[in-house]
Structure formats: structure tokens, C-alpha cells
Amino acid sequence: PRVVVLISGSGSNLQALIEAQSHDRLGGEIVAVISNEADAYGLKRARDAGIDAVALPHREYDSREAYDGALIKVIERHEPDAIVLAGFMRILTPRFVQRFLGRMLNIHPSLLPAYQGLNTHARALADGVKQHGCSVHFVTEELDGGPVVLQAELNVATDDNVESLKQKVQAREHLILPIAVQWFLQGRLQYSGEGATMDGHPL
Ligand code: GRF
Prior knowledge:
Blueprint: E1 2-7, H1 12-22, E2 29-35, H2 41-48, E3 52-55, H3 64-77, E4 82-85, H4 94-100, E5 104-108, H5 120-127, E6 131-138, E7 148-155, H6 162-185, E8 189-192, E9 195-198, E10 201-202
Helix pairs in contact: 1-6
The structure holds 5-O-phosphono-beta-D-ribofuranosylamine.
């Protein structure tokens, strides 16, 4: 199976996927990495791994629709079975989501449905929550709202700050994203309008 990964930045989650693939733990091949930021370090990680690395700068397009149209074309050229958003910091149009609905996963740094959107660590700390973590979910038209496939949770320490929490959460992202992608590529995860199932059981 063929995987396309979308990034915007460092690509540490991408690196976790690359490592899983190199140890035969992904269940497929990353055939392309696409970034909306041309200077994303993750593009270098892709090149160093011999993976097609494509910069598609969103600033070169005059609308979200135009950008997503170009992005769809680049993605489809690689004929993916799965699309993984790994720190892809763009709001996707409904047309884009519908195109890949059911085969697109995202990693989000919170225990969804809590803390959809941005600045999750600062918001969790401000609320004084005791538990925090990260989630892999199917991408739907609702931002960070799709059915959750896998989560990792951790206890927030009294001396945690945004940076320490981010580090702890990212370490767990690097564990759960490759697992969730492998499950999907093995055909164990299904998404329908009503939700998602794993091995036929509702998630
Ligand atoms: C990840 O921590 C993810 O939760 C968030 O953006 C970050 C991307 O980090 N959406 P990286 O580019 O994978 O290192």
C-alpha cells in the first residue's frame, strides 16, 4: 500500500513513520511527502530517506479552493491508499476532505474530543487538567472532529509547562501514529458516515 504524508514543519512524526517503514512496521510505503511550507525541515527528512519531497507553497495560490485543487492533483499523481496529516497546519476545504474521506488520518496533540484546534497544551494547563495526550483520528469536515482511532494519555505534572508537555505528548505521538497507520493499511480500520470501526467493532 502507498502512503502520502502532508507536513508543514519539523516532521518528527514523519520521521517516526519513516522509521516504522524501515523496520517493516508500517505495512506500506511512503511514496511522497508534501509540505505547504517550502522550508519545512520534514522535506529534508524525506529527501534523506529517498522519498519524493514536494513543496507546494500555499502563498502561491489566491484561494483555499485553488490550493486544495492543486494539492489534490499532486496527491493523486502518487495514487495513495492512505493520506496522513502529520503536523499539516492547514484548514482543509470540504471538497478536499470528501475526496479522501475514509482514508485520511490526522495526529492531534490532545485527548479528543477535548481541545480541538490550536494551542492545546497551553489550554490544558490553563484548565489545570490532570490528564492530557494525543489522538489519531479520521479526518472529516469537522476540524479535529473525526472518529478517534487511537490515543495515548499522560499525567500532567505540577511543574509541567507548555514546552515540557509538548515534549511528552510528541514522544507519544511518535508511538501511536505509526501504529494507527499500520492498522489502517492492514484493513483493520473502516470509516463510514456513522463512525469508525476496528476489526468490525465500533470505535
Ligand atoms: C505535532 O506535535 C502535531 O501534534 C501537531 O503539529 C506537530 C507537528 O510536529 N499537529 P512534527 O512536524 O511532526 O514534528
